[in-house]
Fold these 2 entries.
Entry 1:
Amino acid sequence: MVFGLLVFRMVTTMSSRAPEDVDTAPGLAYLQAQEKADVAENENALRSQQATTAAVQQTTSAIQDGNFRAAFRDTLICGDSLMKALTEYSILDKSQVIAEVSVGTEHLEKNMGTIVARNPQYLVLHYGENELDHMDRAPYFIKAYKECLLTLKQRLPNTKIFVDSIWPVTERANKREPLTVYIPDYNKLIKEMCKEVGVTYVDYDPFFASFTENYYDPDGVHPKYKFYTEQYLPFLYTEVRR
């Protein structure tokens, strides 16, 4: 009985207590500010997405029209004579290509400052043909290449780096240049190196599998103009934008 009275008094006391006045203005102001910020953020994200979509459509249209200078305007390609052909054939501008005849990774190291200064969105590297040797020499090539890649990753943290595999040669060229027999072995090492460093390896072996000699110069090593415009650059564009 006493317990019941105590409970009754507690209930009546709690129910009769007047609610305290609470100032909700600061909270409402905060919520309204957050809502405006969210709307602005969503609008900025939408504009950014629309701009990206428009850029992709523009470059896709450029590659379809054969306007490779426009399609690769945000890309820098570095390498040996196989890449120098891109400017020799006037397919790309010299500002888009850094390449020389008969060079290897020492060329990449020498031009490191220029590459960093250009700060490309995409960087494509093509080396190895001129450094083919017996397999006991391969680790020296890989070591030099890896050191360059690590430096580039450090100095160009926002650049996406792509490393080409060494391109195969024709059977006739293979007989004339015995060291080309090691191309698959070198490519395996390049692929492993790319995985270790954290850059993208572009494998051209399947790409070349169905090619005939009509894409090659008589030496069986250097491709013709139409190879770059019909095959290499469209394929590379797809790989870079994948």
Entry 2:
Amino acid sequence: METAQVKAPAVKRVLKAIGTTLLMLLLAAVFYVAVILGDPQEAEQSVKPLVDQPLLQASPAITIDGEGHLAALLNPFPAPVMCPLSGSGLTLVSGISYDAAFEDGFGRIVSLKYANAAGQEMTVESIYPARALSLMGRKDYHLAGVAGQTLAGLRSVRMENDSTIRLHAQAEEAVYVVTVPKMESSELIAFTRSLQLFEGE
């Protein structure tokens, strides 16, 4: 009789532990489904950067101060350029295309500076060739403990410093770098979803 009484609490403890574990698994599954449904992302492309892209001959820098001259920057760039979709509510403040010494030749950088309705400035850079990660510069950035948002279908790496967030993604033909002030996650998602890859004519 005593043995049966001793076993009963032990069985109850085991059943309670199993029930608690199942409940935790169910809650975790509900949480992950809610996160995925609440924040759908573009399908990320699996890309392999080209390693044999030729370097460039140096050319004069080009600067612009409005959307009307954007083609002057995009056309000479030898890969797709990342920029926001038209109608995204962002204003192009300035842009520059310039060459930077890389290996035994030159790489090219197109840097576009935009402002949102609140006056916050955001920079979108396209860097050629795709292997020229060193042209991003490290500055005082450190890896963030958060996954980077998708940039035009590309998986990005998120880095931060005291005041800004930097996302960079490596594509087949170029490296793309987005720098924004610290902002809410929803604002960052809205901005990164407005980005596209555009090829000059």
